[in-house]
Specification:
With 125 residues, the chain is mainly α. It is 73% helix and 0% strand. The chain has helices at residues 9-16, 24-36, 42-52, 54-69, 78-105, 110-124. Helix 3 packs parallel to helix 6, helix 4 (54-69) packs antiparallel against helix 5 and helix 5 runs antiparallel to helix 6 (110-124). The longest helix has 28 residues, at 78-105. 12% of the residues are buried.
């Protein structure tokens, strides 16, 4: 007897793999599939927007580094600038993690949660 499934082989491959390991297009398909079945897709939307914002976050990290590289070389030594650059990068990471957890707790839109840290640091820079 033949069993008719609502999933084809391609969809089954996406479901079996870990959502964190999916590409942006596969993650979008996974979100659409969840929403079409009426399931909760909030965390996957957040993951999608965070992955989408990775290039912007990388640019922010580069800008943070440039602030310390092109500063006055007489004011502080190179080792102090390196340490401050590392601390700025770590601070940006912690800040984005705090905003993410706070945004999830407050049920903010995933788009806002993913973009907020990057744009606030860009405004500060």
């Amino acid at each position: 007897m033949e069993w008719l499934s609502f999933l084809d082989a391609k969809q089954l491959g996406v479901i079996i793999s870990e959502p964190k390991a999916l590409s942006l297009t596969d993650l979008k398909k996974y979100i659409v599939g969840l929403e079409s079945r009426g399931e909760q897709a909030y965390q996957y939307k957040l993951m999608y927007w965070q992955k989408l914002m990775i290039p912007a976050s990388a640019m922010i990290m580069i800008l943070l580094g440039l602030v310390f590289v092109f500063g006055s070389q007489r004011v502080m030594s190179a080792s102090k600038r390196v340490i401050l650059g590392i601390l700025a990068g770590i601070s940006f990471y912690i800040y984005s993690q705090m905003i993410t957890h706070y945004g999830v707790a407050q049920k903010w839109q995933p788009t806002l949660i993913a973009m907020f840290p990057t744009f606030t640091v860009l405004v500060i820079i």
